[in-house]
Amino acid sequence: MRDHGDMARTRSSVTLRPEIAALPAYVPGARASRGRQMYKLSSNELPFPVLPAVGAALSDAGVELNRYPDMYATELTEALGTHLGVPAEKVIVGNGSVAVLAHILEAVCEPGDQVVMAWRSFEAYPIAVPVAGAEPVMVPVDGAGRHDLTAMAAAITDRTRVVLLCSPNNPTGPALTQSEVRQFLETVPDDVLVVLDEAYIDFVRQDDPTDGVALLDDHKHLVVLRTFSKAYGLAGLRVGYAVARRRLATGIRSASTPFGVNAMAQAGALAALASSDLVRDRVEQVVAERDRVTAALAEQGWSLPDAQGNFVWLPLGRRAAAFAEAARESGVLVRPFDGEGVRVSVGEPDGNDLFLEVATDWTTDQAPLAQA
Ligand SMILES: *Cc1c(COP(=O)(O)O)cnc(C)c1O
Fold first, then answer.
1. Which of 72, 205, 259, 342 has the most CB atoms around it within 10 Å of its CB?
2. What pLDDT, on the 0 to 100 scale, is given for residue 368?
């Protein structure tokens, strides 16, 4: 007989899929340690307390947690449809837009398929793609941190099933324009799905901003991703959504986790959606702070990519980790990407001031933005 006691102390013999075993770990933004006041500028969160209407809705929803939520989040989906001006059938909600992206990939990718993405971009992408059985194809962003759409179009092969566009791009900051996305959609073959991740859409203040939803009528191979985690300040609640043509939406919904948006999240997101004036006001404050921070950095001599999200990117190259450590010592948590740069969220004015003090002592490293 096998000695089960011994077995318990050795590794499990169950093999993981090789692509799962090889995955990089998702590195979350640093969290403050107990007992010390730190400004958390490491996860692109909104620096405001939860919206008053959301707090009230959550305490009401808490009373009925013995019940399953509405499986399809009907009320939230309909409210989103109204908010966006599309039929509710085109909206798919999920446990954060990262989960919705996973369901999109699972719905369309087969083993060996390729997914083209810009790099550096959102670090959840190169994890979600292999989990779905597909292979990431990473196309370096240009020297200004922008998607190189020409190179991305050229990277499409017979094996490409999906292209991921992130606008504004996390972590470098620049946004695509509506004309660029439209032109790109015309270049990409009809059977290749283009996912436009507009997580930071509310913070964009450039000419010709993207509006993925407005492109859906003319482009059948587009899916738009949005989230309640950023402008709505609900990162902890986990609600995101996709908007797509009906047949695709049905497929993505089929691939989704049953009851994937919990009862609190449904109630909170509905209340947030109904607080649009306050949301807009808070976003304006963040944008004003972002403009103040970028102007101060320019004054210090930094030359930075265009910041269209609620964060700035310092291309510090090899000094990224050292900068993050210096910031931590001063009481500011930032997000370093080793060898490339540091992403710093726009937070409360005092935190931003402290970050600016740290930044005074450093200057732009001319290291390339991305090594694919
Ligand atoms: C923060 C972020 C999201 C949001 O993800 P959730 O799962 O909705 O919290 C999506 N895409 C990008 C590029 C992001 O930076």
1. 342
2. 43
